[in-house]
Amino acid sequence: MIQQAAIAAFLFLSFPAFSQSPETAAQKLDSIFSVYTNQTPGAAVAIVKDGRVVFKKGYGMADLEQDKPITPQTVFNIASVSKQFTAFAIYLLESEGRLSFEDDIRKYISELPAYSKPIRIRHLLSHTSGLRDQWALLGLAGWRQDDVFTTEQILKLLARQKELNHVPGTTFSYCNSGYTLLAEIVRRVSGRSFADYTREKIFTPLGMTNTRFYDNHESLVKNRAQSYERVGNTYYLKPINVSTAGPSNLMTTVEDLTKWVLNFENPVVGNAKMIQAFNEPSCFDDGKKVVMRIFGPGDSLFQAKGQNLGSHKGVPMITHGGHTAGFRTFMGRFPGQRLAIIALSNDEHNERLNARWQLADYYIKDHLQEEPAASPAATVPKPAPAPPVYTTGLRQFEGDYHNDELLTSYSIEVRNDLLVMTHMRLPDLVLKRTGENRFSGSGPQTFPFELEFLKSETGTITGFLISNFGVKNMLFAKKGR
C-alpha cells in the first residue's frame, strides 16, 4: 500500500470517465516506474485527463552527484519534442501575416544555396525539404556529441551543402536542419531572439514559468536534471553542450507541459482554427499526406508539424518522442479520450520500460482494440551461402579522402586483413565488406553508414560515396589521384 504522506504529494482531481480511484492509479504508475530509486536516474510523469491534471510525480534522481530527486518541477531537455513549439511559433507568425508557408526560405536566409527547386517553409515543417540533417553532417565531419554547437556554426555548414538528399516536397526524410532554419526564420522575421519570441508569445501567456529554449549552454538553469547512461553497473554523465535551439533544446517540466497540452483543448495561445490546422497531416507537393511509416493495412504514421499522427490499438493519437544525450522524452495526446501522457527521463535506457504504452493501456483500456496475434513464421533452414569472391583487393582502397562541404578528411588503410577508416577526432572504424566496392560501418559519432567506392574507367579508385540516416551519397574525393 502506498503511504498517505506520499499520496498527498500528488495532484489528484476527478476522473470523470476513468473508473479507477486516484490511489489505484498511483499504485499502477508506481509499479511501472519502480525500477527508479535514489541510486538511479529516473523520470517525471504527468497525466492530463478530461481537461484536468490527474497525476504528476517524479521517480529517481535528477542529479546523482548532488543527490537531488526528480519532482514534477525538475527541468529536462525534451529533445525533439521541442519541434512542435518551433512549428507553432511559425504558425503564430503566419497568422499575423508576417510570413507565408509558401515562402521560399531564401527570402529569409539568403546565404543558403539556390537549389534547382525552391525549398519552402512548409517543406521545413513537414520534413520534406531534402536538406541534409545537421547531426548526420556533423557526425561525418568528426564532431563529437559533447562538442559545443551553435546556430551560427550550423548555418555555415548548411550554406556549404551543394546537394540535397531528394527533390523538395517529394519524400519524407526526418531533418533537424529544417527546424534550425525555422527557428532562425522566427528570429529574422520577429527581430527578436528565438528564445525571447517563444517566451513572450507562448510560454508566458500559458504560465509556463520554468520553460525556455536554451540557446546558450553556459547559462544557468535552476533545478535541472543531468543525463546519464549505465555501462555495466555504473552510471556515467552524458554532457550536452548545444547552444542552438529549434529542433531540440527546450528546457521544461512536466508541470509546465500540462499547460501546453491543455491549450489544445481550450486555446489561450492561438485559436481553435489554427490548432485544427496545426494538428492536420502535412502534405507532399502532390497533395498526398506525408507518411512516415506504414505498419500494416489501415495503420500508418503521418507527419504533422513537429507531431506524429497515428493510432494505438485503434485509438487515434498525436505524439512525438525525443532523445538527446541521455534524455528520453515522450508527449502523447489521445484527443478522443481527452488523455495526454507526458514522460520525461534522464535515463538513456528509459525506453526499456515501455512506459508510454503501459500508461495508455491503463488509462484508455476500455477503448482499445485487441491486436491480432501474429502467426508464427515457418522456419525453413537455409543453406549457408558460399563466401563471396571479390576481384578488388583491400589495398586498392587505401588512401586519403576529402570532402570540401564538410572541410574534413578520412584515411583508409588495411590492418590485419581489415579495412580501417580513420579520422583525427574519431575512434578508428572497421569497415565491413558488403559487396565488391561496398562497405558498412558504425561509430559513436558517425551513426551507422554505408560506403561505396568509385572507380574510373581504368579501375582506379577515385573516391567514395557515404550515406547515413540524414545524408545521402556525399562524395569524398581521393587525394593525389
CATH architecture of the largest domain: 3-Layer(aba) Sandwich
How would a textbook summarize the main sheet?
A: 8 strands, antiparallel
CATH class of the largest domain: Alpha Beta
Largest beta sheet: strand ordering: 2-1-17-16-15-14-13-12
Q: Helix amount, in percent?
A: 10-25%
- Count the strands? 25
As for the number of domains, it is: 2
Gap from first CA to last CA:
74 Å
Shape: globular
**Helix- and strand-based class?**
alpha+beta
Beta-strand fraction estimate: 25-35%
CATH superfamily of the largest domain, please?
Answer: DD-peptidase/beta-lactamase superfamily
Instruction: Note poorly predicted spans.
Output: 1-16
CATH topology title of the largest domain: Beta-lactamase
Number of helices: 11
Radius of gyration: 24 Å
Mean pLDDT: 92
Structure in words:
- The chain is of the alpha+beta class.
- Helices cover 21% and strands 28% of the residues.
- The protein contains 11 helices and 25 strands.
- The chain has helices spanning 4-7, 22-32, 83-95, 121-125, 134-140, 151-159, 176-190, 194-206, 254-263, 272-278, 355-363, and strands at 43-49, 52-59, 61-63, 68-69, 76-77, 148-150, 212-213, 228-231, 234-237, 241-243, 250-252, 291-296, 299-303, 308-312, 315-324, 327-334, 339-345, 399-403, 408-415, 418-423, 426-433, 438-441, 449-455, 461-468, 471-478.
- A hairpin with a 4-residue loop joins strand 21 and strand 22.
- Helix 3 (83-95) crosses helix 8 (194-206).
List the helices and strands and how they pair.
Elements: H1 4-7, H2 22-32, E1 43-49, E2 52-59, E3 61-63, E4 68-69, E5 76-77, H3 83-95, H4 121-125, H5 134-140, E6 148-150, H6 151-159, H7 176-190, H8 194-206, E7 212-213, E8 228-231, E9 234-237, E10 241-243, E11 250-252, H9 254-263, H10 272-278, E12 291-296, E13 299-303, E14 308-312, E15 315-324, E16 327-334, E17 339-345, H11 355-363, E18 399-403, E19 408-415, E20 418-423, E21 426-433, E22 438-441, E23 449-455, E24 461-468, E25 471-478
Parallel strand pairs: 6-10
Antiparallel strand pairs: 1-2, 1-17, 3-4, 5-11, 7-11, 8-9, 12-13, 13-14, 14-15, 15-16, 16-17, 18-19, 18-25, 19-20, 20-21, 21-22, 22-23, 23-24, 24-25
